[in-house]
Amino acid sequence: MTENSTANKRQKLQKKQIIINAFLMASAGNQTINSWRNENDQTADSFQNPQYWIELAKLLEKGKFNSVFFADVLGPYDVYNGPGNFGPVAKAASQFPLSDPTYFIPLMASVTKNLAFGVTASTIAEPPYHLSRRLGTVDLISNGRVGWNIVTSYLDSASRNLLNGESLPSNVERYDRAEEYLDVVYKLFLSSWQDGAQHLPVLIQAGASTRGKELAARNAEVIFFSSKTKESLAASISDVKEIAKNKFGRDLSKIKFLSLVNVVLGETAEEAQEKYEAAKALGDVEAAKAMFSGWTGVDIGVYDDDQSLDDVNHVAITSAVQKWKEAAPDVKKWTKNAIVDDVLVAGYGPLFVGTAEQVAQKIEDWVEYSDVDGFNFTYTQSPQSFEDIVEYLLPELRKRGLLPEDYPEPLDGKILTYREQLFGDRFLDRTHPAHDLRWNANENKESFESRLPAALERLENGSPKPL
Ligand SMILES: Cc1cc2nc3c(=O)[nH]c(=O)nc-3n(C[C@H](O)[C@H](O)[C@H](O)COP(=O)(O)O)c2cc1C
């Protein structure tokens, strides 16, 4: 072996190995508007054809994806020219209609061994007992391969559907409830059953506000962002790490950070650009406006297409526009049209267009700059986008030492739970506030109950020195 190749090998070994997930919804439309109209797209089949999910699961496991990440919302994006106007998203099938993703997990789990499944469920929607039962069911039947993406909802339509027609409670109220909700879920999973009977799914969280970050820092094992730039991603990760370490005493090596990304790959840069243009040409501007209005909660139908949104005095618009501004500092005027132009293909996250080498380089830059642990890959057409990722991008990432060659070995030689796959652990780590609630397999009832008050006290007030 030459000196150079030894040095290359060493450099490769030192690189951080990342997590790769497929970011899906149980719908024909996800981030790219009107993607279902692409001739290669099969998502219109996803509602009624189990084979769609089965084949996709096999493809993802072949590529050694860590998990499927199912996003979900509980009402249509009906804010634009609304309220109650879901015509534009219905026409473009933008996250509408939307089946319950939980039911597709057993289909996908039955044909895979290592692929894990994160599923979104909102804390406004159902009692914690009911959700725990559902999550516990899919977790057991998939041999511990389930994670729960804890969300507090953002669409008023979801609230109208679920809370007796009431409007969505305030951010503060929703997060207060989420904290309490989570503590009930911990008690149900960890203290009501001895180890071996049931395990707590991996805890995932995404929330951009201060309270969202606090909830994540205290509870989550996987944290998800949708920043448009590596700089804002780095800032969000560093914010949450700071809170997790200093306020909650968490071990940061037991928290993984993920970023959303949409990639369009071609054998040449030109081919990738053509694919991007083709995806955009299918887009529907009204649906893009409706999605943006849903994400921000603000009806942008009241503004002119060419009016600068910088001048609009609305806090949600200002922070959303900031997201796009950072991504394209050269754009002089952030109008509705300028944002919609990006949303058409990219959706709410960043978009990387190019050859496998170019996209892998971007990914490597983002990892180095922000210390992000992995990506949720969304698509412009499914399963074609994932086929491209498996065929072109993943080998390039492996060549660079950014991806492991295979799944890790399971601890007991039989199955790999989601938590094992991520951390090599079966249980919550000891710096997690719910750690002590666990009723160990070899612990008798009296002994467990005698230490339960202290475990509950720690859950409630934190432990001054958990490490
Ligand atoms: C990257 C990312 C992904 C999200 N995915 C979902 C989702 O699938 N379903 C949902 O209801 N909310 C989702 N949310 C919304 C948050 O969980 C949260 O409820 C919402 O952002 C409002 O809280 P915030 O003000 O803290 O951001 C997501 C948020 C982010 C940042």
Automatic annotation (TrEMBL):
<keyword id="KW-0503">Monooxygenase</keyword>
<dbReference type="GO" id="GO:0016705">
    <property type="term" value="F:oxidoreductase activity, acting on paired donors, with incorporation or reduction of molecular oxygen"/>
</dbReference>
<protein>
    <submittedName>
        <fullName>WGS project CCBQ000000000 data, contig 00104</fullName>
    </submittedName>
</protein>
<dbReference type="InterPro" id="IPR051260">
    <property type="entry name" value="Diverse_substr_monoxygenases"/>
</dbReference>
<dbReference type="InterPro" id="IPR016215">
    <property type="entry name" value="NTA_MOA"/>
</dbReference>
<dbReference type="GO" id="GO:0004497">
    <property type="term" value="F:monooxygenase activity"/>
</dbReference>
<dbReference type="InterPro" id="IPR036661">
    <property type="entry name" value="Luciferase-like_sf"/>
</dbReference>
<keyword id="KW-0285">Flavoprotein</keyword>
<dbReference type="Pfam" id="PF00296">
    <property type="entry name" value="Bac_luciferase"/>
</dbReference>
<feature type="domain" description="Luciferase-like">
    <location>
        <begin position="36"/>
        <end position="368"/>
    </location>
</feature>
<dbReference type="InterPro" id="IPR011251">
    <property type="entry name" value="Luciferase-like_dom"/>
</dbReference>
<keyword id="KW-0560">Oxidoreductase</keyword>
<keyword id="KW-0288">FMN</keyword>
<comment type="similarity">
    <text>Belongs to the NtaA/SnaA/DszA monooxygenase family.</text>
</comment>
